[in-house]
Amino acid sequence: MKPSSLPEIPLPPAIRSRHVEGINGLTMHVLEAGFETRGRPCVLLLHGFPELAYSWRKVMPALSEAGYHVIAPDQRGYGRTVGWHAAYDGDLAPFRLTNLVRDALGVVHAFGYRSVAAVIGHDFGSPVAAWCALVRPDVFRSVVMMSAPFGGPPPLPFDTAELPAKPKAEDPVHRELARLARPRKHYQWYYSTRAADGDMHHPRQGVHDFLRAYYHHKSADWKQNQPHPLGSWSADELAKLPTYYVMDLAKTMPETVAEEMPDAAAIAANQWLRDHELSFYAAEYERTGFQGGLQWYRCGTSGVFDAELQIWSGRTIDVPSAFISGRQDWGTYQRPGIFEAMQTRACTRMLLCELIDGAGHWVQQEQGAEVSRLLLQFLVANHAR
Question: Distance (Å, rounded) from C-alpha 73 to C-alpha 102?
Answer without folding.
Answer: 13
